[in-house]
Design a protein that fits this description.
Keywords: Hydrolase
Largest sheet: 9 strands, mixed
Radius of gyration: 17 Å
Bound molecules: SN-glycerol-3-phosphate, magnesium ion
GO molecular function, one term: glycerophosphodiester phosphodiesterase activity
Strand content: 15-25%
Number of helices: 8
Structural class: alpha/beta
Strand order of the largest sheet: 1-9-8-7-6-5-4-2-3
EC number: 3.1.4.46
Protein name: Glycerophosphodiester phosphodiesterase
Enzyme class: hydrolase
Length: about 240
């Protein structure tokens, strides 16, 4: 099987600039760009009124001034929240970004984006559909499309239903029973694993199937060096200040 073409940079900044700025905010993307990064990963989910925006957790408490599930609130309630002061005082007042703001930032700065579809529980397929449809319109005519990824096969099925032409990747924290067959049936172009489960043999297996092999979240130079020697295609990192 021929390896799928790969227009993406090797190094990808996790949640914008990982832990150095409030994750999944425009401030984090700006910081990653300042450190020379030209590819980013972020987590995208839906509000109750199906606005697409960036947030990692199923609930708002950890990284915003809000409370509860964003799936039970409209965007108008989330837009004013403070998504920065939990991190450190200089980021007080930083807002939750909408997906279209991040798309514009990436396109304006010639950066690639790995969009992790991160559904709240119960809306996996719908989140995949809405995020993929939105991505297709936000990147219309772009030379490098966003890479859509998810731990949830149902979300990737939804993405395929809404925008079949956009590349998809299956995220794996562990190599669960049936993952290879599931990946084949999802029509993916890449598998993104926890770095702890990636090794030369798995990279060879993925490449043999025509897929690219990526890992998250690599914050140690020695781990990165081993994986690069083994032929890894992408490394997602928090350490935009020292790696890449
Ligand atoms: O997309 C890779 C990585 O972000 C997956 O884990 O929990 O950081 O979203 P998490
Ligand atoms: Mg993520």
């Amino acid at each position: 099987m021929a390896l799928t073409p790969w227009p993406y940079p090797l190094w990808i900044a996790h949640r914008g600039a990982g832990k150095l700025a409030p994750e999944n905010t425009l401030a984090a993307f700006r910081l990653g760009l300042q450190h020379g990064y030209r590819a980013f990963e972020c987590d995208v989910k839906l509000t109750r009124d199906e606005a697409t925006f960036l947030l990692h957790d199923d609930t708002l408490e950890r990284t915003t001034s809000g409370q509860g599930s964003p799936a039970e609130q409209d965007w108008s309630a989330l837009a004013p929240l403070d998504a920065g002061s939990w991190h450190s005082p200089p980021y007080t007042g930083e807002r939750l970004p909408r997906f279209d703001q991040i798309a514009r930032f990436c396109r304006a700065n010639a950066c690639a984006l790995n969009v992790e579809i991160k559904p709240c529980p119960g809306v996996e397929r719908r989140t995949g559909q809405v995020v993929a449809a939105k991505a297709a319109s936000l990147w219309a005519g772009a030379a490098v499309p966003p890479l859509l990824s998810s731990f949830k096969p149902e979300a990737l099925e939804g993405a395929r239903e809404a925008a079949a032409a956009l590349p998809r990747a299956l995220l794996l924290d562990t190599l669960w029973d049936g993952w290879f067959e599931a990946a084949k049936s999802l029509g993916i172009v890449a598998v993104v694993t926890n770095w702890r489960v990636m090794d030369a043999a798995l990279i060879e297996q993925l490449h043999g199937a025509g897929w690219r092999a990526l890992v998250y979240t690599v914050n140690e130079a020695e781990v990165a060096e081993r994986l690069i020697r083994d032929g890894i295609d992408g490394l997602i990192t928090d350490r935009v200040d020292v790696l890449g």
